[in-house]
Amino acid sequence: MESIPRKRRKWKVKVGERRQALKQMLELGQINDIDVRVALIQALIPEGLKAVNEKLQAEVLSLAGEKRRHGKENVRWGSQPGSVYLQDQKVPIEVPRVRNKLRNIEIPLEYYQRFQEPYQGDEQVFKKLLNGLSTHKYRESAELVPEVFGISASSLSRRFKYASSLRLKQLQERRLDKYDFVAIIIDGKRFAEDGLMIALGITLEGTKVVLGIEQMATENHRPIAQFLEKLIERGLRYEDGLLFIVDGSKGILKAIEQVFPLCGLIHRCHYHKTENVVGYLPKGLQMIWRAKLRAAYRQIKYEAALRALEKLAAELHNINPSAETSLKEGLEETLTLHKLGLYAELGKSLSSTNCIESVMSQLGQYTDKVDRWRGGSHIQRWAASGLLALEPHLQKMRGFRYLKLLRAQLKQEIAKRQKIQALGDATSDDLSAGIHIITPENCG
Question: How far apart (Å, rounded) are the C-alpha atoms in residues 408 and 389?
Answer without folding.
Answer: 33
